[in-house]
Amino acid sequence: CPAYSIYTTCSRACPLTCDNYLIPPQVCVLMCKIGCECDEGYALAKDGSCVYPEHFPPQAAEKSCSGEAETGLRRAYFPTWYCDTKSGACKRFVYGGCGGNGNRYATEE
Question: Whole-model pTM?
C-alpha cells in the first residue's frame, strides 16, 4: 500500500478523491473491496497515492484565455496568472488547488 494508507479486506467502494473530496459521493454501492484505503483525512490521487488536501496535484485543464480566474476548490496558496479578457493583460491571482479552469498560468509569459 502507498504511504498514508492501510490494507483492508473491506475498503470503500467509492473512495474519496481530489475530484470528489469537497462533495463526497452520497450514494455508493455498499460493497467491500479488498485493497488499500487512504488514512482518514487523505484522498486518493489519480496516480494511486494518498495525499493530504493541501497537497492535491493540480488538475490538468485545457489552457484558455477566456473566462474569469477560478481559484479552485482547495485553500492552498499557489500564486498564478490569468488572462483578463477585458483588458487583454495578464493578472495575478491565488489558485487554491483542485479544479478551476484552463485560464491559469505559472508565469506572466
Answer: 0.47
